[in-house]
Every structure is written in structure tokens, then in C-alpha cells.
Amino acid sequence: MDISKTFKICGDGLAAQRAKLDVVASNLANASTTRTAEGGPYRRKSLVLSSQEVEAPFDAAMKNALKTVKIEKIVEDEGPGKMVYDPSHPDADDKGMVVLPNVNIVMEMADMISSSRSFEACVTAFDATKNMALKSLELGK
Known about the structure:
The chain is of the alpha+beta class. It is built from two helices and four strands. It has one domain.
């Protein structure tokens, strides 16, 4: 059995959850941004993850069982922004309405907690795998 496959799966999971946290942080940081380079308010970003087979599985019986995570792309949420009445805002229209980003702070915080827990789980799995490898090396003493 090749223990490096487990390290790869854990590492891919850590990278995916870190990327998800980066996207959440960007959404939270821009929750009030009404102007972007593309024009209009900031649009909420989401990370699209998919599973893929681990390269060169160690056993044909495990070929379809072992999957790792892959970051497919980052997509923008096309949902409408929130309209608020603020005639003093520099981006207000002639009726005093401002379009704010479609970022829901509560949802972003829930995503942040979920990603953080998943990251911790990957760290725990990585640590357990490391301990197993160390115990295997002690057998040779």
C-alpha cells in the first residue's frame, strides 16, 4: 500500500478548503462594494469543487473508491443585488436607490465555519496518516 496517496488526498483537501476560505474572505471584504472594474456592484463568488480519481491507484479494487478533490473554477453568483434607499450615496440612481452586492453575510459565515471544520478534519487525517507511517517505521527496529 502506498501511503503517499493518502497524503495527496489530504493535501488536495487542505488546498481546496483554503481556496474556499479565500473566496469567502473576498466575499466578506466586498460585501459593501458598489463599484468594480467590470462595472456595477461586486458579485458574490463561489468555488466549484469536483472529485477525481487519484493518479495511479495502488490497487485495482480501490480504483473507483479513492477520490480526491479538484478545484474546477470560481463562478460569480448571478443573483440580483440588494436595492436600498440611500440618496446620499455616490452610486445612487435618480430615485435614490443603490444596488448593493448579492453577498449574504450570514451565509458567508456559515460557509467559513464549514470550510474551517473541513480543513481541521483534513489536518487530523493527515496527522493520523503521518503517525501510522511513523509506527510502520518503528516495526523495523
